[in-house]
Each structure stands twice: as structure tokens, then as C-alpha cells.
Amino acid sequence: MIRVLIVDDQVMVREGFSVLLNAMPDIEVVGEAVDGRQAVHKVAVLKPDVVLMDIRMPEMNGLEATREIVAADADAKVLVLTTFDLDEYVYQALRSGASGFLLKDASAGQLAEGVRIVASGEALLAPTVTKRLISEFSRLGTPRAPAQERIADLTERETEVLVLVAQGLSNGEIAEHLVVAESTVKTHVSRILVKLGLRDRTQAAVFAYEARLVTPGG
Predict the structure, then answer these.
(1) Which of 205, 11, 193 has its CA nearest to residue 91?
(2) What CA–CA distance (Å, rounded) separates 128 from 43?
(3) Tens-of-pLDDT digits for all 218 residues of the chain?
(4) How far apart are CA 31 and CA 7, in angstroms?
(5) 9 to 17, 62, 142, 185: CA distances (angstroms)
(6) Across the strands, what pairs with 29?
(7) Cys-Cys link to 143, which of 34, 73, 159, 212 (CB 3.0-4.6 A)?
(8) For the stretch 3-27, what's the b/e string if a residue is b when 16 or more beta carbons lie within 10 angstroms of its beta carbon?
(9) Please, what are the domains in the chain?
């Protein structure tokens, strides 16, 4: 069973998501939190597999809570929820360690699948989020020097895989694109994370944008 903590200041949202997720045979909602501060406490106590995190909340917002949760447990998986696909905090949330992003109007199936994807260690990057990140880094202009320097540690194939990860492709899609076994792709991804000191695919995608490996139209 995938154990989920739902964090949202609106009771109807929490109850709605609880009903939808508890109806799934492989998912169990183990708790709810009304704000970021309560979320940090409940994550420490309940140890959920996935945290469904709203961004805009009183006391402590989802961005701050995500940062604290990930700082306390590098393996924590946070799936950010928001009403708008162009929410100004999406980019910051992903940089803070969130493993994915989902709109609140997602269907029950999309919500459950999002939880499963994040729980499995994959990143959940919707096309709208990918475009948002590219746009953000385009606005920032020059690439971050540390990111560029660390690229030198990667092999040519690892760099190629990193670019595809940043474009939102799954391991299976990358394997098909490169005409290699999916297990080979998993090995490349693991080596990329170790070499760059990153925790997951989402951070790898952000790193690729910072290093300007991925640019608008690329």
C-alpha cells in the first residue's frame, strides 16, 4: 500500500482527495494536515510514502513545508498540488525538492497515477510545467556556472540521457528513443544522480535547465 498524507487548508479538498484515493486498492490516506507547519510534524510522525502538498496555505505555505520536509528526509516524496498550471511557486517548489506537480482539477485516475509515479521514485513533470521551467530559465538568462562545471563529470551518453529526462521522458521512452534496454537507461540515470549529487529526476531536470542543456525550443 502507498501511504499518503494530504496537506490543504480547505476541508472539502482534503475530504475529496481522501475519498478518491482511499477508493484505490493500492493507496491509503494515513493523515491530513491543514497547513505546512502541521504537515512537517505529521510527516515526521506518520512517515507517509507520498505527501500531497498544496502551495498556498496560512501559517506555513507548501513551498516552505516542502523545503523542511526534504531537508529532514532526503527520501521524502512531495507531490505539489495547485489550481493553476502557471502558479508562480511551481518553479520554486521543484527547486525545493518536490518530486512532481499536479493540477487540483486532475481526474481521480490522474491523481492516483500521479501518486503511484512519485511513490515509485519517478518525477511527475507535466508538459505545462516543463514549458514553465524552460521559460523561467530563459528569463534568467545566463546559465549557472557551478551547473556547467559539473556537466564535465558526465559522459556523452549520460548528458544525452539527462537532456531527455529534463524534457519529461520516462525511462521507457528514453530507452525507445536511444534504442537501448530500459535497464540501461535506469543505470545511466542512477549514475547521473550520483555524479551530480542530486536526489531524484526532478532535481536532475532543474539542473539541466540551470546548465542550459535544455533551452526554449530544445
Answers:
(1) 205
(2) 28
(3) 999 999 999 999 999 999 999 999 999 999 999 999 999 999 999 999 999 999 888 888 888 999 999 889 878 899 988 776 555 666 677 777 888 888 788 888 889 988 998 898 776 666 566 666 656 655 655 555 556 677 888 999 999 999 998 887 888 899 999 999 999 999 999 999 999 888 778 778 878 877 878 765 54
(4) 9
(5) 13, 10, 38, 40
(6) 4
(7) 212
(8) ebbbbbbeeebbebbbebbeebeeb
(9) 2-124 (3.40.50.2300), 142-210 (1.10.10.10)
Cα–Cα dist 102/87, whole Å: 11
Distant-in-sequence, close-in-space partners of 122: CB < 8 Å, separation ≥ 6: 170, 171, 201
| Residue 88, amino acid | E
* Kind and range of the H or E run holding 29: strand 27-33
Region of residue 97 (left: phi > 0; alpha: psi -120 to 50; beta: else): left
Retrieve residue 45's grid coordinates.
510522525
- What secondary structure letter does DSSP report for 26? T
Q: Are 196 and 153 in contact (CB under 8 A)?
A: yes
Taking the C-alpha atoms of residue 197 and residue 107, their distance in angstroms, rounded to an integer, is: 35
Tell me the three cell numbers of residue 105: 482539477
